[in-house]
Amino acid sequence: MFEKVLIANRGEIAIRVARTLKEMGISSVAVYSEADRDTPHVRYADEAYLLGPSIPAESYLKIEKILEVAGRCGAEAIHPGYGFLAENAEFARAIEAAGIVWIGPPAEAIDSMGSKTKAREVMKAAGVPIVPGDTDPVADVKAALRAAAAIGYPIACKAVGGGGGKGFRVALSAEGLADAFEGAAREGEKFFSDDRVYLERYLEDPRHVEVQVLADSHGNVIHLGERDCSIQRRHQKLIEEAPGPRVNAAMRRRIGKIATDAARAVDYRGAGTIEGLQVGDQYFFLEMNTRVQVEHCVTEMVTGIDIVREQIRVAAGERLAVTQDQVRLSGHAIECRINAEAAHLNFTPAPGPVDSYKEPSGPGVRVDSGLERGGAVTPLYDPMVAKLITWDTDRTKATARMIRALGEYDIGSLTTLIPFHTAILQTEQWVKAETCRDLTEDTEWLKSLAPPPESAPETLGGEGAVELEERTYQVEVAGRLYPVRVIGEAFAGGSAVAGKRKRPPRRERRGLGGSAATGDDLTAPLQGTVFRLPVAQGDAVAEGDLIVVIEAMKMENEIVAHKAGTITALGLAEGEAVNAGDLIATIKAAG
Questions:
Q1: In the CATH hierarchy, which fold is given to the domain comprising 516-588?
Q2: 317-354 pLDDT, tens digit each
Q3: What is the rounded CA–CA span in Å between residue 416 and residue 409?
């Protein structure tokens, strides 16, 4: 078994992996960007090393820098977590070429499953059912129109290298196909450096059901049952549960076989997920994620199997700890993604400070988080900052426990999806195990989740109090962090990492996101970068027309006109940085 493992990630998943490493007696090595110097994942690991600037391309995506750190600290293996380089075959090959063990599947399997079109070809050849559509990319809009006519509308335009909702656009008819095709191609080029697009039939209200697989190098391939991830926004998951509420024992056996057949078809090793769409008793292969999933926690809760531990064991050449016959599902688990987003403003990213923080607890409650009081959620990284998971003997009880736990979660003035989760879990649609798409796409219902205005901040702490406290600082020397303890007089406004401290005054709660308009002026609802500006001064626009696309926290946010009229002024340009409150455009009505 390994003695030291480097975790090439950040936040809650880095802490999640480090916890299992600690239980296995393996030293953990964290890496961090300049923006993450003081974050919990850095302190939790046994060692920590600076990668580079805050921008992911200069730190967490810098393959040569990660390998340099691994060699410097003597790491025998690298765990990629999820996101960043987790499904990058080039990264896997570079690690192996450096004589380090890659805790993940073979690079060839990543290649096969990383291309959506190639994955469809492999699965079709293996007899795995796929959604009707093409396996080859289409060249342009004209070719797409011909292909769509043969497949039938509605059509999903999907980037070949897409995932996580990126590069996915839907055309309900031929009139909308050009916009959907070009949008998918644009996102594919931006996020995956591949603008190729393929088409498949869009299933209007399927359940998103996926199967967790594990495979070792000794020929053993098993599945751990399914997860239902149907509660989504913009094709990105919000709530997951296991087992699937519409999956019976017969279907579980059938889709389990589909999943293990798919894994065997690419000689898979490690942990992976076969994602599919369930329509009644039909099930279609969608894609394979060649990594540990964000929502792996709900499977762990109902099976009792540590999936990260199995990843590490397999990478070390060991056999899986369990056989298929030993896998048992017990009870029901639900996971809510605690994203820094404003649901009432159409899920706009809402970065900000974490001025207070207290996690829920009690029987059957688990929190995987990278947050702490005194920290901040920046617009540089993914908006998901924590996961809240509950377990109980059935779905109804697990739901009640989740609602209770959400009520206990205190993240201060940071805007999160906690109000959304609390509301949707109490709807009739959730009780009936529906997909809830009517709610997640209903802007009026979402607006009802807006937080109430708060009174002025309260004054905390006594006057003139003098007290001693212990503080733990992280001192960086030659790119490596070292903990230093200092005991001294407490000071107001400070924030200690450990020990007794004075609380800062509570900030007024505010929400970010959604287009904001006063009279003729349309202003930016969030901080980010202008990705696309399809209008110009002098253009006539209708209410609801697209004015600008602002990228923030790895998401594209479309800001639309609040009224009909003529654009008399533009305050932005493509590629520029924008802050919340900046003028986007002035729109004056005719006459």
A1: OB fold (Dihydrolipoamide Acetyltransferase, E2P) (2.40.50)
A2: 999 999 999 999 999 999 999 999 999 998 988 999 99
A3: 11
Rounded CA separation 499/491 (Å):
13
What is the torsional sign of CA 195, 201, 205, 208? negative
The token pair at 488 is: 């001294």
The residue-averaged pLDDT of 107-113 equals 92
**What's the fold here for domain 108-131+205-330?**
D-amino Acid Aminotransferase; Chain A, domain 1 (3.30.470)
How many C-beta neighbours within 10 Å does residue 60 have? 26
Extract the tokens encoding 222.
């098993």
Residue with tokens 């919990």: 40
Residue 333, H or E segment: strand 332-339
Report strand pairing: 236-242 vs 221-233: antiparallel
Looking at residue 362, its pLDDT comes to 97
pLDDT at 79 over 80: yes
Which residue type sits at 200? Answer: E
Interval 519-557: pLDDT, tens: 888 988 776 788 888 899 999 988 888 898 887 765 677
Residue entry with tokens 């931006």: 190
Pick the CATH number of 133-201 from 1.10.3720.10, 3.30.1490.20, 3.50.50.60, 3.30.230.10: 3.30.1490.20
Which fold, 4-103?
Answer: Rossmann fold (3.40.50)
pLDDT tens, position by position, 217-234: 999 999 999 999 999 998
Distance in angstroms (rounded) separating the CA atoms of residues 505 and 508? 9
pTM over 0.90: no
Fold of the domain built from segment(s) 337-450: D-amino Acid Aminotransferase; Chain A, domain 1 (3.30.470)
Collapsed DSSP state (helix, strand, coil) of residue 297? helix
Residues 46 and 25 sit within 8 Å (Cβ to Cβ): no
pLDDT tens per residue across span 387-417: 999 999 999 999 999 999 999 999 999 999 9
Angle at 164 between CA 98 and CA 113, to 5 degrees: 50
Tell me, what DSSP letter sits at residue 321?
Answer: S
DSSP reduced 3-state for 411: coil
Q: Where are the domains of the chain?
A: 4-103, 108-131+205-330, 133-201, 337-450, 459-505, 516-588
Mean pLDDT score of the chain:
88
Sole residue written with tokens 């909702």: 165
- The H-or-E segment that residue 493 falls in is none
CB 275 within 8 A of CB 295: no
| φ, ψ for residue 190, nearest 5 deg | -70, -50
Report strand pairing: 365-369 vs 565-570: unpaired
Higher pLDDT, 234 or 98: 98
Q: Which ranges constitute the DSSP H helices of 276-394?
A: 296-303, 307-315
Tell me the per-residue pLDDT of 22-45, one tens digit each, with 9 for 90 and over. Answer: 999 999 999 999 999 999 999 999
Backbone angles phi, psi at 256, to 5 degrees: -65, -40
Beta strands 47-52 and 27-33, pairing class: parallel
